[in-house]
Amino acid sequence: MANSFKNAKVDLTTTNATVLYTVPSATTTIVKSILVSEDSGNADTITVTLTNASSAVFSLFKVKAVTANTTIELLTAPLVVTESEIIKVTAATANRLHVVASLLEVS
């Protein structure tokens, strides 16, 4: 088994659901951290979902508040995601939020 630390990052320039991370084939990933930073000086909200291999969508965070000019940590414990699962993030307003995830891929 190989372990590889990675990060995934996205600037939410639209209000569409945006892929933050997709688990590669033959891999399990431990998400250690999901940081959300608001950089426009305006409070906003973020929604985070997990789509599994059968395309079922599960809410991880539904309309989570992010205060103006702050960074928040969404996870209080590691999140395990498996092969082909997708983490998506959606901002309520475009051009306000940046998201960075810290990951450990185990393959």
Features:
107 residues, mainly beta, Jelly Rolls, 5-stranded antiparallel β-sheet, 4-stranded antiparallel β-sheet, 62% strand
Task: Write up what this structure looks like.
The protein is mostly beta strands. It has a single domain (3-106), classed as Jelly Rolls (Sandwich). It has no helices and nine strands. Strand 4 (44-51) and strand 5 form a beta hairpin.
Dominant shape: globular
Strand count, sense and barrel status of the largest sheet are: 5 strands, antiparallel
Question: What distance separates the N and C termini?
Answer: 5 Å
Supply Rg. 14 Å
Could you report the average pLDDT, rounded to the nearest whole number? 97
The portion of residues assigned to helices is under 10%
**CATH C-level category:** Mainly Beta
CATH topology, what is it called?
A: Jelly Rolls
CATH superfamily: Nucleoplasmin core domain
In the CATH hierarchy, what is the architecture at level 2? Sandwich
- List the total number of helices: 0
Order of helices and strands: EEEEEEEEE
As residue ranges, the low-confidence spans are none
Which structural class do the helices and strands define? mainly beta
